[in-house]
From TrEMBL:
Organism: Streptomyces violaceusniger
Entry keyword annotation includes Membrane: yes
Transmembrane as UniProt keyword: yes
Coiled coil: none
GO cellular component terms listed in the entry, alphabetical order: plasma membrane
Keywords per UniProt: Membrane, Transmembrane, Transmembrane helix
A family per Pfam: ABC2_membrane_2
PANTHER family per the UniProt record, alphabetical: INTEGRAL MEMBRANE PROTEIN-RELATED, MEMBRANE PROTEIN
Classification lineage: Bacteria, Bacillati, Actinomycetota, Actinomycetes, Kitasatosporales
Origin superkingdom: Bacteria
Transmembrane stretches, start-end: 59-81, 115-136, 148-172, 179-199, 230-248
A single GO molecular function term of this UniProt record: ABC-type transporter activity
Protein name (database record): ABC transporter permease
């Protein structure tokens, strides 16, 4: 993509993007590298106790419960929301949107090009995470998880990030308010975490409304690419972005 809107967005966010990529990679490597120690601790537990706690001592189980089940999805959500907030509602409230709309570019092009910049940033972050985990895979005794399975989980991490970026873009373009972006993101984020973690208590059906379920429920670290889950996250992102763009094209922008 060669649009100035796209390249300018990436240029303006390059320092932050580097920090996000390095930070996520370091966090992922830090958690993953403790697997041998955690596995030894788990192996020392009585078998009955491990079974009662449903402890999964495999490399895939450990990565799913820690690296990809806790901190990295949270960071992915935060990055997506931050990118959407900065590119839409933040610019509108600061008056910068007025300058952008004065250029010979449609509102749809503005949204699409800036969203493409956010997706590119997410792609860079998740690629760096994948490469970082591959670098420590042997030393951290994670060989039972193949590079393709790690890639499948990182692709889902990318799509989770894109889903929340699309949500933030959609809310920002639809309402032009930071409050609207944060409120919608918090609501969906809570649903994502609670729906995926508590569905056994409140009903199996609730997990299907959680983006987290489509991110990790198919266990890509064991089963590789889950194309149905990938399709759901892509469609969800497209819906968020389309609804916001339609609203953005129809309303007055208060700059």
């Amino acid at each position: 993509m060669s649009s100035p809107l796209y390249t300018k967005f990436l240029a303006d966010s390059r320092r932050g993007l580097i920090a996000w990529a390095v930070g996520c990679a370091v966090v992922g490597m830090g958690y993953a590298s403790t697997y041998p120690e955690q596995k030894n601790n788990t192996d020392s537990m009585p078998a009955a106790f491990r079974e009662s706690l449903h402890v999964d001592a495999t490399a895939a189980g450990y990565l799913q419960a820690t690296v990809f089940g806790l901190i990295l999805p949270l960071l992915a959500m935060i990055y997506g929301i931050t990118a959407g907030l900065r590119a839409t509602a933040s610019d509108e409230e600061s008056g910068q949107m007025d300058l952008l709309l004065a250029h010979p570019a449609t509102r749809t092009k503005l949204v699409v090009q800036r969203f493409a910049g956010a997706v590119t940033g997410a792609l860079v972050i998740c690629t760096v995470v994948w490469l970082a985990l591959l670098a420590i895979r042997d030393g951290a005794e994670l060989n039972s998880v193949t590079p393709v399975e790690l890639l499948a989980q990182c692709v889902n991490l990318l799509l989770l990030c894109v889903t929340f970026a699309a949500l933030a873009f959609g809310a920002g373009t639809a309402f032009g308010s930071k409050v609207a972006v944060l409120a919608s993101s918090i609501v969906v984020g809570v649903i994502a975490y609670m729906g995926n973690s508590l569905y056994t208590q409140v009903g199996d059906g609730i997990k299907y409304v959680s983006p987290m379920y489509y991110y990790i429920g198919g266990e890509p670290l064991r089963n590789g690419f889950q194309w149905g889950d990938i399709a759901v996250l892509v469609i969800l992102s497209a819906v968020f972005l389309a609804v916001g763009t339609v609203r953005f094209n129809r309303r007055d922008v208060n700059c």
